[in-house]
Each structure stands twice: as structure tokens, then as C-alpha cells.
């Protein structure tokens, strides 16, 4: 059943074989034995992809519920005698993961040494079920989803630049000045060619910006800003240390880039598992303590 579920979610036998650490022939044998036991075809196979039959779709839904109950029953029996154990797969926005979440995972595992955490760092909006992820920590607005959503707050941002760059090009005195500066552009963020600032009276200003450097990773933007390649908006958790030691300065402090939502997405079928619940509770408590993360 577990092999069948992963094939249904992945749609590829060789990918599932690599994931499970077995040969593709073993995956094929599991599927054949399952279909023989059930008595109907569950999967339709082509040279490129494996898809569910109508009977397979209904069987897949029931398998999820059955295996969840099996895992919960095993956990309850095991936890009556010992601490929670097993693996939790966490997906996280890349720069936040490198800067802060990895360290938090160390703390979590010090408290729960029998829990293995598989940390996946990506800025892509992956399909959690398809990728076998239990929990995802995400920045930015999220589309409607079947996942369970836990809002952690907002990540506040500042407009920053390096002292050397500002000495050479002058410091902006008002938002309209920003259009003449080189801006480090995040190419994977929609609308990054316009800088939206919240003014002291609560209104929003839209400033067109441009720059010769475009990056798709927060850590690359951090390095570019510190190196004086231009100005740009940055999450406080990304640059707080550079601000503290003077490598970056805050510009137009009364005007702030709009904050970004921070959320946890949890696969509903995994939410009740003890080790997943422990990690979620830990992240809810600890992420709110990071620089610039505040309640919505």
C-alpha cells in the first residue's frame, strides 16, 4: 500500500524506487501483487507516466486513511513505552532555512534525539503530498490549498544599502529619489520591478525600480547588498547582523516595504502524528522569536 501511494503521487516508478531505496523491479512486484490481491487494475501505465484508474483513485483515498491509522496505532503503542521517533520531512524557504531554521532544527533534535528531520530548502511552491513532505514553512501569500494552514505572523522588511554605495551615490531623501538608484532585483518575486512602500500616514507608494543585477535567492541578494551592488528591500531576519555591524544602513526609515506573511502548511493526514505535531509546535513557538517576525 505504501509503495502504491507513492507511485500514485509521483507518477513514476523509478523515482519511487530511488526514494524507497529499492530496485524498480521491487516496486513493480509490489504493485502487481497489490492489484492481484484487490482483483482490479489500480494503475494505468504508459512509457512516460503512471496514472490512477477510477478504481485506483478510490483505493488510494482509502489507503491514505488506513495507513494513517496504522501509523497512529503504532505510535501510540510505541510512545506508551518510549519517546516519539521516526522521520519528519520539512520544506522551507531557502534563505530562511540556511540563516535560521537549520539552527532551530538542531535545538529541536537536542530535545527529541530520536526524531529524524529531512530538511528540504527551496523557494518553489512544491506539491507537499507528491514530494512526501509533512510540513512546509513558507513566505508570501498562499493560494487556496487542501493543506492545513497555520499563520505564524508577518516578516517585516527594510530598505537598505551599503555605506560605500551610498557615499558614492548619495542618500535618498524622499521615495521618488529611489528610481535613480541601482536596485538588486529578486527575479523570482512577482512585481519586484516596483517597490511598494508604506508611508507614515498608512498609504502605499509604488516606485518603479531597475538594476543590472537580478538574483533568485535571498542569500545572493544579501551578499549583493553588502557588496554595494545597489539598494533593495530585505527581510530583517536576512540582514539584521549586517545592520548591527554597519555593513548595511536603513534608508528612508519612515517608509517601509510591505511585510510578508509567514505560514506553516501541514499535510492534514500527517498532522496528528506525534513527531510531526512536536515539530509544528516547536516551530510555532520559535519562528516568532526570529528578527522581524511579528504577529499579523
Q: How is this structure best described in words?
A:
- Belongs to the LysR transcriptional regulatory family.
- Keywords: DNA-binding, Transcription, Transcription regulation.
- Pfam families: HTH_1, LysR_substrate.
- Residues 1-53 form the HTH lysR-type domain.
- The structure is a single chain.
- The longest helix is centred in the N-terminal third of the chain and has 26 residues, at 54-79.
- The chain has a 6-stranded mixed sheet with strand order 4-3-5-15-6-16, with helices on one face.
- The chain has 296 residues and is an alpha+beta fold.
- The chain has 10 helices and 16 strands.
- The two termini are 41 Å apart.
Give a quick set of tags describing it:
23% strand, alpha+beta, 16 strands, 296 residues, 40% helix, 6-stranded mixed sheet
Blueprint (SSEs and pairs):
Blueprint: H1 2-10, H2 13-20, H3 24-38, E1 43-45, E2 50-52, H4 54-79, E3 86-92, H5 94-111, E4 115-121, H6 128-131, E5 135-139, E6 148-155, E7 157-161, H7 163-169, E8 185-186, E9 194-198, E10 204-208, E11 214-215, H8 218-226, E12 232-235, H9 236-244, E13 249-250, E14 256-257, E15 260-266, H10 274-287, E16 293-294
Parallel strand pairs: 3-4, 3-5, 8-11
Antiparallel strand pairs: 1-2, 5-15, 6-15, 6-16, 7-12, 7-13, 9-10, 9-14
Amino acid at each position: 500500500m505504501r509503495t502504491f501511494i507513492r507511485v500514485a503521487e509521483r507518477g513514476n516508478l523509478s523515482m519511487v524506487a530511488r526514494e524507497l531505496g529499492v530496485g524498480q523491479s521491487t516496486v513493480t512486484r509490489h504493485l502487481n501483487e497489490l492489484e492481484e490481491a484487490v482483483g482490479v487494475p489500480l494503475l494505468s501505465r504508459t512509457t512516460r507516466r503512471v496514472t490512477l484508474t477510477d478504481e485506483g483513485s478510490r483505493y488510494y483515498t482509502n489507503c491514505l486513511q488506513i495507513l494513517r491509522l496504522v501509523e497512529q496505532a503504532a505510535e501510540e503503542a510505541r510512545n506508551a513505552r518510549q519517546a516519539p521517533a521516526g522521520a519528519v520531512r520539512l520544506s522551507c524557504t531557502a534563505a530562511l532555512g540556511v540563516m535560521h531554521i537549520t539552527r532551530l532544527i538542531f535545538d529541536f533534535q537536542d530535545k527529541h534525539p530520536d526524531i529524524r528531520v529531512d530538511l528540504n530548502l527551496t523557494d518553489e511552491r512544491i506539491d507537499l503530498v507528491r514530494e512526501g513532505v509533512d510540513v512546509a514553512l513558507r513566505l508570501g501569500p498562499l493560494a487556496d490549498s487542501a493543506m492545513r494552514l497555520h499563520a505564524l505572523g508577518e516578516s517585516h522588511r527594510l530598505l537598505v544599502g551599503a555605506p560605500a554605495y551610498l557615499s558614492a551615490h548619495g542618500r535618498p531623501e524622499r521615495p521618488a529619489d529611489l528610481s535613480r538608484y541601482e536596485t538588486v532585483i529578486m527575479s523570482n518575486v512577482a512585481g519586484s520591478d516596483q517597490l511598494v512602500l508604506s508611508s507614515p500616514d498608512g498609504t502605499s507608494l509604488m516606485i518603479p525600480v531597475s538594476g543590472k543585477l537580478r538574483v533568485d535567492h535571498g542569500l545572493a541578494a544579501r551578499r549583493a547588498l553588502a557588496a554595494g551592488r545597489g539598494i533593495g528591500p530585505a527581510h530583517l531576519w536576512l540582514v539584521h547582523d549586517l545592520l548591527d555591524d554597519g555593513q548595511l544602513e536603513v534608508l528612508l526609515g519612515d517608509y517601509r516595504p510591505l511585510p510578508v506573511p509567514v505560514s506553516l502548511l501541514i499535510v492534514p493526514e500527517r498532522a496528528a502524528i506525534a513527531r510531526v505535531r512536536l515539530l509544528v509546535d516547536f516551530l510555532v513557538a520559535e519562528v516568532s522569536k526570529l528578527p522581524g517576525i511579528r504577529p499579523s
